[in-house]
Amino acid sequence: MSLHPTIPASKVEGTAVYNLDGDKLGSIDDLVIDKRTGHVRYAALEFGGFLGIGTDRYPLPWHLLRYDTTKDGYVVNLDRDLLTDAPRYARGTEPPQTDDYGRTVFGHYGFDWQS
Amino acid sequence: MSLHPTIPASKVEGTAVYNLDGDKLGSIDDLVIDKRTGHVRYAALEFGGFLGIGTDRYPLPWHLLRYDTTKDGYVVNLDRDLLTDAPRYARGTEPPQTDDYGRTVFGHYGFDWQS
Question: Which interval of the chain is the signal sequence (chains A, B) (predicted)?
């Protein structure tokens, strides 16, 4: 077993995302990385209409996502209430690639942007 | 100034890569990330025929690449000798996404895969 399996970023796009009950919520639309460190900061999720959420992209702090080898996808513990007023942007648009925006996204989910 | 400027992984593809003299070597074809930690492990470079290297992809440990905001691209200190027998794979193919392959790539450039 490979302890550090890798995957091309181009293939992460489209990887399924599940909730804790194993329901498929949607998939990853893109990864957003720190230009210098190369760490993925957040993943942009598209929910495919789940919960009537439509096609907006929801940036989620990377550490919310746990990779599950048995599912070959990511699992996330997402409460619907958290999504109601969560940061989002329309498909085809791009949010600011700044610390301010990162802080907004991380803050919403209770994470520290610099950590 | 943003201390942690971000960029969508989908946009890193195509970002220019320069040598220390400022010559453009080629561009990034893809990023390869650790599925679990979300850290970019290496970048696949295509040299666009530079040095007669053709269209093979050269995986380079991420830490060899330094992001240069003035160039809006990455700078790498690459000795031609290091490239002669460097790990590479043909365009359109994919190397094994395993620790073994990572070790081979990192080892070639003097890096420790687990570090």
Answer: none
